[in-house]
Predict the 3D structure of the following.
Amino acid sequence: MAQPIELQPRAITVQELAAINSRQVPERYIREGIGALDASFPVLDVPTIDLQLLASSSSTSGDELDKLRSALSSYGCIQAINHGITSAFLDKLREVARQFFALPSEEKKKYSREIGSIEGYGNDMILSEHQILDWTDRLYLILRSEDKQTLKFWPENPESFRGILNDYSTKLHVILEVLLKAMARSLNLEENQFLQQYGDQATMQARFNFYPICPRPDQVLGVKPHADGSVITMLLQDKEVEGLQVLKDDQWFNVPIIPQALLINVGDQAEIMSNGIFKSPVHRVVTNSERERITLAVFCIPHPDQEIQPVEELINETHPRLYKKVKDYVSLYFQYYQQGRRPMEAALI
């Protein structure tokens, strides 16, 4: 597939658009078939997993491993608690994000992304004149490793932003190792099987999401339906405003907020590595007519040269190999994603 060419980026952010006209939405944001949001969606009972138990060698850790396998096979996501990050620190992280998006437009645009790149402040790439746009502004930054960081995109205002985000990436790296080892053990594999495929040249990419108030939540999405191209995604939800929905059994479910928890989901590359046992969930973000919403997603992504494939021990006569060997899956992912297609199509045998 040819490399997509981005058209001229939007000169105006969604936040500015919402401030100019609080009653109407431009046609390019309107989608058919979202459904009336006044009818409440059912709540998804996302399993809560204790990461301290996963990391321990106690007898209770086996039960937690069983819970983890069941959750990632059925739901593709967990609410992670006892992850070692204090509520006070998470609140600081939420606050610096709020402060950044509250800055004047001129200040935020100092960090604007460049055409053809996802890094920096702005919106999704526009690859087609007919592309329906998401009702969100984003700040996309590479966290790890430090030699991959492009600091010109890292806000200096608020002053504490860079330090807090670097601290967060260090804490998440510890969580990631615990989780990938536990995922392997839950499938009776040697604990480093997934970690080795993930590789030591992997990156963490942060995406701060700002969803302004939207007058037509019945017609506009904050983020279109998709599954993630990562191995693992860790989401810090808004502390008060819901909006994330997961597709399960052909029905959309609201994902509840647990303020002190991290919502962690499997990405496509972990589904490939587990030969389809773990499921990368399709999800979307709905808009809100009364309150804005801010979240922070961190994507854990192997190096583009790292080969990802099903673990051999998970392939047998009753469970044949489902996926090809893939490299640089994220490049493939963005091409498919902007067309509203699942990139996993390209990985299936």
